[in-house]
Design goal:
disordered N terminus; about 15% strand; about 170 residues; two-stranded antiparallel sheet; globular; alpha/beta; disordered C terminus
């Protein structure tokens, strides 16, 4: 590759631009795939965020964050590589994450709540959202977010994360 990289306008560049950048037919988080799931973690407790990020990475997914800040989470959401799913804590220091949850829902990004709030304390509009009460024991919440991410990734056929570098969009894989 060393010598070919120097040829900025030649054949190597033309061939490289035709290589697909994702594979839609493999499960989310499968190591060795061209694209793994991207999971946004919004959690203000350092140890809980570290635990969630480690569990997500161990499943082969890419972690966006973790962050305990709503503005930073919004910046991560609006980046070129949107998350496939998110893990949200409801109480982020002095702020509630419900506006962020609404923004995720509006963008079609599925999410789960991992929080100290009980289900009956949650707004009714989030009744269908998976809800896990802290402290988290076991991997059920990670299983849930990975399943949501996989489903979201498979349905976003023409999203910006699935594109042939030459600019054509479409389903890649078989």
């Amino acid at each position: 590759r060393g010598g070919l990289d120097r040829d900025r306008g030649g054949l190597f560049r033309a061939v490289r631009n035709m290589v697909p950048t994702c594979r839609l037919r493999r499960p989310c988080g499968t190591k060795g795939t061209a694209m793994t799931c991207r999971i946004l973690i919004v959690e203000d407790d350092y140890w809980a965020a570290l635990h969630l990020a480690t569990e997500v990475r161990d499943r082969g997914a890419t972690v966006l964050g973790p962050t305990g800040s709503i503005p930073l989470a919004v910046a991560l959401m609006s980046a070129r590589r949107r998350p496939h799913a998110a893990i949200l804590d409801v109480q982020l220091r002095t702020q509630l994450a419900f506006p962020l949850a609404d923004a995720l829902a509006e963008q079609g990004v599925p999410f789960i709540f991992v929080t100290g709030f009980e289900r009956e304390d949650m707004p009714e509009r989030f009744d269908a959202v998976p809800h896990f009460v802290k402290p988290i024991i076991g991997g059920a919440c990670i299983d849930a977010v990975m399943a949501l991410a996989d489903a979201a990734r498979r349905t976003r056929v023409f999203g910006p994360q699935c594109r042939v570098r030459s600019g054509r969009r479409g389903v890649i894989g078989g």
